[in-house]
């Protein structure tokens, strides 16, 4: 039995080495240089994930900001977002986005609000054209996971390729560097 486990281990190691060599360092660097991280963060959790992604990829970064900031108090923002969602309201976004023409992959970060992306992210996507780009959602949440983020992004950007994405619990967002690096390695 020990011999069989040893053989299986060696085969797994060899498979890993072969797979690691299928993408050259230059190919990986070129792929990573065409990455843009776009995010909206209310409490700072999504910002932490976004900055780690940007540090690991060396890609560009852009923070979505609303013209009128959301309230800091939890119950006040919950009430405001509930009203916005039920009315289909999208907040005004500050200018400053230079476009995505130089990028192939866009990591799109948002807190999960009512089971989907935050209304500022909806507003931003409504104003942009990511046709032909790959959008990879990353969501921070308090227990709801990705929700319908990927489907809702697809509806707003039908000509983009929207990947499944990743959810990060808000309680571990500020210490998720290894989790982010592992996810990134599996994606790229």
UniProtKB/TrEMBL annotation:
Sorted alphabetically, which SUPFAM superfamilies does this protein's record hold? Flavoproteins (SSF52218)
Which portions of this protein are annotated as coiled-coil regions?
none
Which PROSITE patterns does the UniProt record give?
FLAVODOXIN, FLAVODOXIN_LIKE
- The chain positions of domain Flavodoxin-like read 35-188
From the UniProt record, which GO molecular function terms apply?
electron transfer activity; FMN binding
Q: What is this protein called?
A: NADPH-dependent FMN reductase
């Amino acid at each position: 039995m020990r011999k069989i486990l040893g053989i299986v281990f060696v085969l797994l190691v060899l498979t890993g080495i072969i797979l690691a060599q299928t993408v050259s360092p230059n190919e990986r660097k070129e792929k990573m240089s065409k990455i843009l991280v776009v995010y909206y963060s209310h409490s700072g959790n999504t910002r932490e994930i976004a900055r780690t992604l940007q540090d690991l990829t060396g890609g560009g970064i852009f923070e979505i900001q609303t013209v009128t900031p959301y309230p800091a108090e939890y119950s006040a923002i919950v009430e405001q977002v509930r009203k916005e969602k039920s009315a289909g309201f999208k907040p005004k976004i500050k200018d400053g986005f230079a476009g995505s023409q130089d990028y192939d992959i866009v990591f799109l970060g948002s807190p999960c609000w009512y089971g989907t992306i935050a209304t500022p992210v909806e507003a931003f996507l409504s104003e942009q054209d990511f046709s032909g780009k790959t959008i990879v959602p990353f969501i921070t949440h308090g227990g709801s996971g990705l929700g319908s983020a990927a489907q809702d992004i697809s509806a707003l950007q039908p000509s983009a390729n929207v990947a499944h994405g990743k959810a990060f619990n808000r309680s571990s967002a500020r210490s998720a560097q290894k989790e982010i690096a592992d996810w990134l390695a599996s994606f790229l």
